[in-house]
Amino acid sequence: MTMTKPTFPPTDKVQEALLLLLFKRGGDSNALWAEDTYEPLADFFILSEHDRSVTRHALSNDGHNEPYWHTMVQFARQRLVDNKDLHKPDVHWHVGIWRLTEQGKRSAASLAAGRSRAAFADHRPIAPVHAAQLGKFPAKITLKDLGLT
Length: 149
Description:
By secondary structure, the chain is mainly alpha-helical. Helices cover 40% and strands 4% of the residues.
């Protein structure tokens, strides 16, 4: 049985889309849990169910059964960390939270200004990581902060 070869977007396009996703859907902290990025990015690139679920092992025989798409997004994330557009996890940050740096916010704002369509505007609700979850508590917590408006 022959496996259909998946069609993935280029890494630089995944990086751009990840920047935009965090900027537009990451709330006041421009941050999301890693697990909340894979599906909206796959939707943005209109990936088939096969492309979303094919494992690393199926493509590279490396013994890892996580979806190859997740690896691609994680690689794009690492490139953004290397470019100083995303914070790297350390003892001060929660592992699994992907958050834009100030430079990343500027890069994303520039990308967003050049987009003709509203990227991620119509996707299912994503719970952004709020400042309180990052250990920074706002002076006043509003209903919006709690996702109730």
